[in-house]
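User: Fold this, then the next.

Assistant: Folding the first:
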Amino acid sequence: MASSLTCAGVIWAFLSFLCAAASCVGFFMPYWLLGSQLEKSVSFGTFRRCSYPVRDESLQMTVMVEQCGRYASFQAIPSAEWRICTVVTGLGCGLLLLVALTALMGCCVSELISRTVGRVAGGIQFLGG
């Protein structure tokens, strides 16, 4: 297999992939904020939460649901700031994955990545980060 990347480019491709994977895992995991509520451990991220309070009308009290899940809809995310964070972080992860996978393909395909494409990809990574 021929490569269109230099040794530094191959290192950049693998580091880009590792960083993109770490960003995506961090985005999908609900452990951004940790705390406790009603004597239970709770955590949540931009669009997922674990152990959250729910009003039980039959018992007329608030109970803790001890499971992880995503919000039922985009509007169910608690605040406009968290919604913006969800969109921006999701787009950033998508851009980072696009660049990383393109760079990894450049390790296997000759003439895929030129100097100009590498510079543009670096700019996209900067925006994605």
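Now the next one, as you asked:
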Amino acid sequence: RCAVAALVALSFSGAIGVTFLMLGCALEYYGVYWPLFVLIFYFICPIPHFIAKRVGDDSDAASSACRELAYFFTTGIVVSAFGLPIILARVEAIKWGACGLVLAGNAVIFLTILGFFLVFGRGDDFSWEQW
């Protein structure tokens, strides 16, 4: 029951994040769809974690080199997702208001992704591996 409520809350927050992203692109005042390239970062963000989980050893060590490398790559992906709209606004490909909406959407989406892994990534009876 709690997992279903968490899944509903995560899907709601994901929808809010994508709404911010779409508002930054589709409002008539902004009207440029370049910020949609951050969707690529949303999709590749969990990939280092999946690879580290699959490749890394199953020991209960506090940290491993594989996991730390996955954190490093994930951090690079997240920073790049925040940097892309700022660069696009600096070269005047998009307006600064659109940049703000995309940054707000990024914050919500990445917090949603983090929330998903915190709720379903524990490896207990109900985990994301079942999905």
